[in-house]
Amino acid sequence: MTTPLRILHLDCTRGQGGQEKDHIHEACEFRRRGHIYWIGARPDTFLLRIAQKKDMALSLPMRSNFDLFSFLTIRRFLKSEKIDILVTSSYIDAVLGWFAALSLGGNRPVVVRQRHLLNPPKGMLPFRRFCDFIVAVSDIARFGYIERKIPFWKVVAIPRGIPEPGEGKGPSPSPSTDLPDNGRHANDRVILQIGTFQRDKGQLPLLEALRPHLAMNPSLHLVLLGEGPLRPNVERRLASERFADVKDRIHLPGFANPVPYYQRASVLAVSSFREAYSLVILEAFSHELPVVGFRQGGVIEAFSRGNFGELVPPWNFPLLAERTVAWALRDLPPGGGAARFLPGSFDIARSVERTESFYRWALERKKAGELGKNLYETFGGRIDPFARTAEKIEGAAEPEGRAGREKKEREISGGLDGSR
User: Fold this and answer.
1) pLDDT, tens digit (0-9, with 9 covering 90-100), for 241-261
2) Measured distance CA(137)–CA(152) in Å, rounded
């Protein structure tokens, strides 16, 4: 029997979105497999409240990168609980966690930076220096770090998963009062969009693109599920005269259990400008709900787990609205409409199994004294395709200018055709 891993996951976020839900799903699955798992989060946050309910919480103020109290608390916890893997998620906890771990010397845990976002980081220093490895939630996110000169061997991609519908959620929630009832409104169609109200989730342009369709189809409803800083902007837009005739069919329930909405909706619209990996797509697929979104980022990878819906060119909100309405009204193309999902497509267990294997591999690298080393240069005769050549390492001058480049090309071509 393998020794259980002891994991501490830090996140200073105050949000209540897919990243936070993924932390909880991952922690619960690790614990189900017999491992020890804690979540360190700020007081009065969604993440800490849920972690407290599941008896795996560590409360940390994490006020700044220089929060001495948080630093000392993390350090003591790492030492007393003999943590094997420290996972960090955001800038403040990445700095505090790294230096708390580093202060333990050779007894420190392996530090893994988990990355759920496709947004370009403000600075690359935390990713270069303040972790041993980066775990990105999709291939597209991993490639982004490689393009920013993070060594390819330091970044791995492990796609996320979700629990089975209803798993660990208690009894099914009651139907929401924000949805059209199944009586005289039984034939009404619901378009669902889920996400934090922020610019890159695209609620405002989606709202504008769907307005004429809502006006032409009195049976259509739009539900924007979530909260966030841009909700007042949406409310002001809905209060304008242009939305007067459709306002009563646009619903803003706030944060709520999404299950009743998945069950009642006709289609999920993913209007995000960028997504590292969309858990709401997996959730929709698991409820056999079609999805219409932009062909970009991790949306494409999420669609590889199933085939029920349609992807349209990025930024084209009129086309996104048109195809969303078509799916909502089931005006499908020939041969469309059949849900096709790969076996085990949505299971969080598969994601955690791969994550556990990676953590154990990382611990072996630590025991061998190989953390921070490029194994592809030195192990088994393999070579890093991006490695600097011996000539460059020794500081030999490179040919400069057009003449120098032409000379170098002649030397290379001569070596290839045997004319030298």
Assistant:
1) 999 999 999 999 998 889 999
2) 15
